[in-house]
From TrEMBL:
This is CheY-like chemotaxis protein. Residues 5-122 form the Response regulatory domain. GO terms for biological process: phosphorelay signal transduction system. The modification 4-aspartylphosphate is found at residue 55. SUPFAM superfamilies: CheY-like. InterPro entries: CheY-like_superfamily, Sig_transdc_resp-reg_receiver. It comes from Pedobacter cryoconitis. Keywords: Phosphoprotein, Two-component regulatory system. The keyword Transport does not apply. Gene3D superfamilies: 3.40.50.2300.
């Protein structure tokens, strides 16, 4: 069976590039989308996505909106979302988890804590 993949949703190509490089070196397969709408479209098309790494602050549809839509979709609601945000202020983690994320990492990303989180879901 094909290995489960990680979908990275981020509006910054540099973040996507860095995350993909790190995750690939750990043996993960990655897809990426440049925003919430594109990410949701990929989730509809690709049925082997195990985890979503969701940037919370994006123009257009942000991570909170995208997670709300995923939560209402029977096919998407069980896909775990790990919130990725540069906003590491008090209350942000709780806000992300309350919005439906299963985990939270702040930028710059601590690779060890991210891979520990991913290991729970893949």
């Amino acid at each position: 069976m094909e290995k489960k993949r990680i979908l990275i949703i981020d509006d910054d190509n540099r973040n996507i590039f860095a995350l993909k490089a790190v995750l690939k070196s750990k043996g993960y397969q990655c897809l990426s989308a440049i925003g919430g709408e594109e990410g949701l479209q990929l989730l509809e098309e690709q049925k082997d996505i195990a985890v979503v790494l969701m940037d919370m602050m994006m123009p257009g549809m942000d991570g909170y909106e995208a997670m709300a839509i995923m939560g209402k979709d029977p096919e998407l609601k069980d896909i775990p979302v790990i919130a990725v945000t540069a906003q590491a202020m008090l209350g942000d983690k709780e806000r992300c988890l309350n919005a439906g994320a299963v985990g939270y990492v702040s930028k710059p990303i601590n690779v060890d804590s991210l891979t520990a989180l991913l290991a729970k879901y893949i």
